[in-house]
Amino acid sequence: MAGSALFNLMLDAWETPDKMRTVTTLFAAGGFLAFPLGLWAAGFLSEGKRAETAFAAAFVSFAVATIGVTAVLYAIQYRLYYAQWHADAFTVIWAFQIVFTGLAAFYQFTVLGIRLFFPIGFVVLFIAALWFARRLH
């Protein structure tokens, strides 16, 4: 996932090398942390099923886990940045700020971040799902 993000950022001549490194690291961490979660979900969904079902379960599980974990990591980073302007911790205003900052981060990641998974990430996703289905059968 890091390679896919870096490839897209380089094609866009995006920002500075430091910012490219930060985004690439975020996508690497997201992919790294999501793989075991996606593997578990795929195994759970495809237990005792045919190879085609295992492939579909793996494809969806890996995709949802990777996008979800990367989005959560992005939201955490987003929150850390905006925390300096938020209210004191554990107040009602602070709770609203946490929720709406998180929602804004997820929206922003959906609009701007998911495109960095294509086309390389999609190919890797297909290969991982194929590997999973063949491993089971």
Automatic annotation (TrEMBL):
Keyword Transmembrane helix recorded: yes
Membrane-traversing stretches: 20-42, 54-77, 89-109, 116-133
Keywords: Membrane, Transmembrane, Transmembrane helix
Lineage: superkingdom: Bacteria
Name of this chain's protein: Uncharacterized protein
Organism: Mesorhizobium zhangyense
Lineage, highest ranks first: Bacteria, Pseudomonadati, Pseudomonadota, Alphaproteobacteria, Hyphomicrobiales
